[in-house]
Design brief:
610 residues; alpha+beta; Aldehyde Ferredoxin Oxidoreductase,  A, domain 1; Aldehyde Ferredoxin Oxidoreductase Protein, subunit A, domain 2; Aldehyde Ferredoxin Oxidoreductase Protein, subunit A, domain 3; 3 domains; six-stranded mixed sheet; four-stranded mixed sheet; 27 helices
Length: 610
Amino acid sequence: MKGWNGKILRVDLSKGTSKITTYTEDIAKRFIGGRGLAVKLLWDELPQGADPLGPENMLIFAAGPYTAYTVPNSGKMVVAAKSPLTGGYGDGNLGTRAAVNMRKCGLDAVVVTGKSEKPVYISVVDDKVEILDATHLWGKDSYVTEDWLLEKHGKATGVLIIGQSGENLCNIATVVAQKGRAGGRPGMGAVMGSKHLKALIFNGKRDIPAAHPEELKKLGKEGFDKIPKFDAFPYWKKVGTMQAADMMQTASALPTRNFSEGQFEHIDNVNGDAVHAATVTQRGCPNCNMICGNTIIDSEGIESELDYENVTMLGPNIGVGDLAQVGTLNRICDELGLDTIGAGSCIGFAMECAEKGLVDMDLKFGDFEGAKKLLYEMADMKGHGALFGKGTRAAAKELGGEAPDYAIHVKGLEVSAYDCHYCPGMALSFGTSPIGAHHKDAWVISWEISSGIRGEYGPEKADKVIEFQRIRGGLFETIVSCRFPWIELGYPLEDYPKYFEAATGVKMSLDDMWKMGDRVYALIRAFWAREYGEEWSRKMDYPPVRWFKHPLPKGPLEGKHLDEAKYDKLLTSYYDKRGWDDRGIPTKATLKELDLAEEAEELAKYVKVS
């Protein structure tokens, strides 16, 4: 194969062994890479009912046939496993030198199973694989760990690390890299910690064979040249993702005080202009010329890399309106390896529960010091952190009473930074995200707000969610590439099949890519259904209770909330268009049409398949 290396490194930490395996050209063409390869491996090899924090769970780092070539935004990889936070399929992507270097070691993926008796890290240098002692790094934060690894192995080394939260099996722990890059919101850091795996490092120097290298080089140069010429580029360069803050504020969709309100009175302190004014440096992923990370000096005098999600969830959502303090909370999350979205949601939930007397805590909205303390407690899984570090769904269930009304999640994964009291299309996007409530698969809220049909529940909203899922969660999560050039600047989608063909020699139209994306989504949904069995229901695809029961209390949309009956009808429309039954499980006919007939037979062992 060209484009694909066709090789997977498998490390069994229980046995202390490693080996290289190959995968077929058929798998490569049907699932491409990244998320597609990851879910296929989990489906084929992970026993149903496996403990997410047990040694048999598979921690997968997967690149795609786009990764590491000199083409725009190709420095990304996917990390996946069965999620300890949700109990279903979990993944995330992150931009990192590790993605590039892993591919230059001749690999498309690394699969880690088992559990080491002592803390270790995995070193991959070209063909040489070693499992090295990390006892002296255990208990250290991700920044200290990265500094040590780069000092020992060289500044060009690609690193993937967990902080203390992953070590202590906090369900919102992520995998982190490069002091600000993170991925794997559904507890991928906890899976890594459960294996006593502190880090992976990659140093590779191989060329990755391409089917048409000169054409790929030409296309890459043209792509890099296009990006700065888009009209939206100068403003993007100024504020990056922070441009969403004022948009959501104006639209009453800014998460404020645990998603109870849609606007924040101190927005001018934490919006794009505020971040731009405070920016001291900018950071990006490998092979990127539209970098998105704006770094400020936080309230403790340390650099902190910000974007919209972490500013909003650790700012307005917990009532903190001081940007330097938000920066401190964000940087602490990065050091500890905590998901900033999940952490902001758990803190906001804890604050509301404390104010309502549902938990005995001296904590209220706007309490910066209390939030900071809770971050450390969650990372250590001690004190109140032992409860809230489990995630909002588990914490709400333990608290009981009305607490579940204030837990803002879908399937256990905390909602990212968009309030959907009056955005049924985006609510559907959160409800049907393949990993739980995440925006990355179908960020339809901008279209919905500007469409003139914001409060409507028509089938065109299901169409738009599916369209975006095919592009964002199908195409970009499998080849693997950043979606920002397309969604933020208008970079043409038609270029990606050209890159793909130049790399692999395989001609695929965008329609072919959409079918591949549907295949990946169907298999991910089958994985969820297999793990939940007869407990699975369409209610799993419902957004948070709050958006139905608690109307917005003030602002231009005062009194607005989702209509449950209309949402349910919209969900049915989505299922029908996907070819899924009324529980949201792909039918046998759909699975067969997507070349998943064998998977349909396997799924039928665990749940009724129509």
